[in-house]
C-alpha cells in the first residue's frame, strides 16, 4: 500500500460557475491505476465525484480523462503521486464526465449494399489496422485542426477509410471525407501517439484517403502545383537565390580529427530557402569532427507528395535518393529537416542508417560552446518529436549554450500540406503558437525544422533560429573570447 495526493478538476453545473481544483490524499495498492484512485476517492471520501468507467481493462474507452495534461484511459494509466486529473477537452457535464454524443454522432455507420458482399482476406487485412478504435476520443482532443476548423477529427477519418475499404459499404467515403475537410490534417501525429490502441491514423487513414481523393481529382490546386514543381525541378519549392548545393563542394572536411563520415540529405527548404541554417550546420559539424559528403544528384524526399496523397512519382524519387547515397558507400545519412528525416526513416527502406543532426551531435559529443545571455524556448517539430522520437537530444545541446524554458509541444500548423493548401488554418495555428511563445517570456525561439522556422517566424516577434545557428553563435563567442585572451 502507498499514500498519494492527487488533485481533480471538479465542476457541478448546478452549483459551480466555473471549474475548480480539489485535492485528495488517499491510500492505494502498489501498481494502482488512476481509475482505482477515482474509485477510492468516490467510495471513501466524496461520493459526489462523477466519472465514467465500464470494462476497467482498456477495451471500452469510457474512462478517458486527462492525466497531467495528457489524454489517457484511467484504467490503464498508473497512478502517481501529485498527479492532476481533468476531463477531456470536450463539453463537461459534471466533474470528469464529458458530453460524447455530439462527437460520436459524426462517426459514420456502414451503409449496406443491396446485395450481400463478403470481404476477401486481403480486404480484411487492409481494414485490420483501423478496426480497433474504442471511440474514447482521446485523439480528437489533441488534434490541432479540430480547435481552429470544422475538421471532425482523426477518428472520423479513420472510420471513413475503414468503410472505404469495406466492400459491404455502398457509400462514397472519399467524397464524404473531402467534404469533411480531409486536407485539414497537419500530419502532426499527435492522434497516433495518444491513441490507446496505437492506430496510425495519419499514415493508415488520412494519407490513404488523400491518395484515393487524388485519383478522383480532389487534390487541392496548390498541392497539384507543388507536385508539378517536383516533377519539373526535383524540388518542392522554387529558387529564391543561390542554393546550398551551389555554395558547397561535395565533401566538407572537419577542422580536426575525423570522428565520423556522413552523407548529408539537404532537403528542399534548406537547399532553396533556409540556406543559411544549413551552412551554419556544416560549420558546427566541421568543428565537431564530422566529415560531410553532399551528393548533388539528390532530390526531394517526396514528403509533400506522400502527405497530400500524390504518389505517382514517389518510387522514382526514392530510388534516385537511395542510389545517390548507396553508390558512394555511405552508411549514415544525416538530415536536418524534420520532415525529410521522418520520411527517410518511416517511408523509405534504406540500406543506410538515417540520423538527425541532433542525434549525430549527441552521439559523438560537441566542443563546449560559450554560453549566450539568452532566455530561449524550443519548439518541437512534429516530424522530429513524434515522427522520429527525438525530444531530449536538442535540449541537451541547447542547455549548453542558452537558458531554456519549456512550452507545450503543439503543432505550429505548417505540416501536412496545410500551409500551402489551407493557409487560413495554418495561420490560426501559427497564431496560437505565437501566443505560447509569448507566454514563456523567451527572447528567442529555437527549432529543428525549416518549415517550422519559416512558419513560426511569421507569427512571433521573437527571432527564430535553428539549433545549429545557436550552437554556432556560441562557438563564435568562444572564438572571440579566445582571441581576446591571446592578445592580452
Structure write-up:
The protein has 488 residues and is of the alpha/beta class. The protein folds into 4 domains: 98 residues, Beta-grasp domain (Ubiquitin-like (UB roll), Roll); 113 residues, Alpha-helical ferredoxin (Fumarate Reductase Iron-sulfur Protein, Chain B, domain 2); 128 residues, 3-Layer(aba) Sandwich (Rossmann fold); 104 residues, Rossmann fold, CATH 3.40.50. Helices cover 42% and strands 14% of the residues. It is built from 23 helices and 16 strands. The strands form 4 sheets. It has a 5-stranded mixed beta sheet with strand order 2-1-5-3-4. The chain has a 5-stranded mixed beta sheet with strand order 8-10-9-11-12. A 4-stranded parallel beta sheet has the order 14-13-15-16. Strand 3 and strand 4 form a beta hairpin. Helix 13 packs across helix 23.
What spatial order of strands do you see in the largest sheet?
2-1-5-3-4
Proportion of residues in β-strands: 5-15%
In CATH, the topology of the largest domain is named: Rossmann fold
CATH architecture tag of the largest domain:
3-Layer(aba) Sandwich
Shape: globular
Q: What is the number of beta strands?
A: 16
Task: Give the low-pLDDT segments.
Answer: none
Q: Oligomerization state of this entry? A: single chain
Average pLDDT number: 96
Main beta sheet strand tally, sense and closure: 5 strands, mixed
- Tell me the span between the first and last alpha carbons: 66 Å
